[in-house]
Amino acid sequence: MTRFADTPTLTGPIAVLEPLSPEHADELGRAAADGELWKLWYTSVPRPEDMATAIEWRLGMQREGAMAPWAIRNAASGDLVGMTTFCNISPENLRVEIGHTWMAQSAHRTGINADAKRLLLGRAFDTLGCNAVYFHTHWHNHQSRAAIERLGAKQDGVLRSYQVFKGVVRDTVTFSILTNEWDAVRHGLDARIERHVG
Fold it and tell me: Any idea what the CATH number is for the domain that residue 20 is in?
């Protein structure tokens, strides 16, 4: 396992990312039930009853060095509100993808996502020395596409018929942030986080 797959605890003013654990299953199941996001046909959010399996899959990928999975905790309440990962890890090319991210409905628009992404991007660029960080999302997931753009990521293109997802052929939108763009992205995220904290 490379250090790209390590999952140290990352702490911000709004979000705390902690190493994903099987012990998180029950609380993350309750978070997934908040909004029943698995019912959206273009998202991949585990059902509460499937949470333990979803966690074990992520931990198995981590053991292979292919993923770094975290649980997302609301720093103020202490509640677990979702999961996120580094995936498609490529240490030899100094790149990661941030993906497999979901959060409870009540955590949306609270600043938790911005803070979590700030923590992940800081680790990718400042600690791991990445040249690029990628994001992929479903063409029809307009909420996710808008959220990625708000981070400061730029759309690279659309991968047409990229995969079969829930039995439907999916077009995938790909975005990236490059190392020379990180400074501006960081300032933008810090300003957003400050508005929620202040």
Answer: 3.40.630.30
